[in-house]
Amino acid sequence: MPEADLSASRRCVRCAVCLPHCPTYAMALDEAESPRGRLALMDGYARGILEADEAFWGHLDRCLGCRLCEAVCPAEVPYGALLDRIRALERRGGRRAPRLHRGLRFVAGRPWALALLARTLRPAAAFGARPLRRILPSSLRPLVDLAPHPLPHPWRPPTGVALRPAHEGEVALFLGCYARLLRPEPLRATLRVLADLGIRTVIPPRQTCCGALARHMGEEEEAERLAAHNRQAFAGARTVLVLDTGCLASLRSALVDDDGTASAPPEIVEASSFLDRVLPARLPQTRVPMPLLVHTPCTQRSLAAGTAPVHRVLARLGFEAKPWGQGAGCCGAAGTHGLLHPEASAALLDRVFTPPPPEGAGIVTCNIGCALTLGARLEREKHTGKIFHPSEILDLFWDRPPKASVSVTERSQE
Ligand code: SF4
Ligand code: SF4
Questions:
Q1: Which ligand 2 atom lies nearest to the CA of residue 68?
Q2: Same domain, yes or no, for 263 and 348?
């Protein structure tokens, strides 16, 4: 019975504070595409006075789950949790998630499937994006558009970094899922920077996807399966470092919130916040700085400390980075949303690119979905800008002698 599950939707006082912050409302100017409208739909469903037809689910499907509404709501309506809940009810009622989502989520949560995909992606990419687009079904084309060209070398654990559970005083690195295939360089850069700071870092080997893809689509069993894996993998860790803000909430709910039984839950900390805490006040630079812009992923705005730590980290190297795309809201990535609704996603991205970044600029972002989406757009437009994680900027621009005791050898392998 959905009533109890969705009762928090009634906390909405219809004040409309959230409306200017909602990207889907900004595009459609339709109440049913706003947080307030969606909460009213949830309430109507819970009371049994609304029929859950295709139009009903469509309004909820188009929600990005960005939680920008939740971040500004004076009534503290837990919008994200309610959305996860109604989607879980949708799944329990037999309405399945789209096939493309299910495929991506299946691979994300199984390291063997990720490894297999890594082995098949490279030969497939050798065909080139255009021929691939022609032979693939139209539902898979957005995947080709999103993947970087050329594909990076997939993640391999570097020599010199311990692959084991974390002990007291060590930092445990969370690897994510598709980051290992499509954006592994920030992971490598982070390990190099931490090693050069003298911070003992380990990689717990049994870790898996944070479960955000499953949780936000209402696939509760799969999300719980992944959470249980990660609880085992990170048992004993005091600090877990996460590079992508999209993984923060799910990992927190798996390792910290859970059912409150974790005796000493670890601190799940976003990488730029951690670096802001441990870096010295000034760092020597290796080269002439480039113009840097800072993009704010929705999850960084609504669930992390915002971009202030990113700006402070970059300022250590003398960068005066400017915010970019801030007022436009979501870039359209939003988990698998951008792949399932490519046209709506492109319209959101247009708003971020108005105005476009200057040629040659570096765009710093802390979330893989945003990084891939923004990077694909730059590539398509033959723009000379480049996407970075803050760790990559540190790794590239910080002039320091590497610590001899730790050898992150992947740098020399590339
Ligand atoms: S800000 Fe909160 S209370 Fe106000 S309309 Fe939006 S969801 Fe409802
Ligand atoms: S989660 Fe984002 S897209 Fe969905 S209603 Fe809230 S602000 Fe709008």
A1: 7
A2: no
Which residue's CA is the closest to the ligand 2 atom numbered 2? 66
The radius of gyration of the chain from alpha carbons, rounded to an integer in Å, stands at 21
Q: Which residues pair with 172 in a beta bridge?
A: 202, 240
Domain enclosing residue 315, as ranges: 279-397
Residue 24 Cβ < 6 Å to ligand 2: yes
Q: Which residues contact 389 (CB under 8 A, 6 or more apart)?
A: 183, 185, 186, 189, 190, 243, 271, 364, 365, 366, 371
Q: What is the three-class DSSP state of 166?
A: coil
Q: What is the mean pLDDT of residues 329-341?
A: 92
Same structural domain, 270 and 122:
yes
CA of 215 to the centre of ligand 1 (A): 23
- 6 pairs with which residues across the strands? none
Residue whose C-alpha is closest to residue 108's, from 185, 20, 18, 214: 214
Q: Is the CB of 338 under 6 A from ligand 2?
A: no
pLDDT digits (tens, 9 = 90+) for 197-214: 999 999 999 999 999 999
Inside any domain, residue 404 = no
Residue where one domain finishes, among candidates 57, 92, 127 = 92
Ligand 1, CB cutoff 6 Å, lining residues: 12-18, 35-36, 39, 69, 73, 75, 77
81 and 150 assigned to the same domain: no
Check if 9 has its Cβ closer than 6 Å to any atom of ligand 2: no
Q: Torsion over CA of 172, 176, 68 and 301, rounded to 10 degrees?
A: 40
Percent of the chain with pLDDT over 70: 94
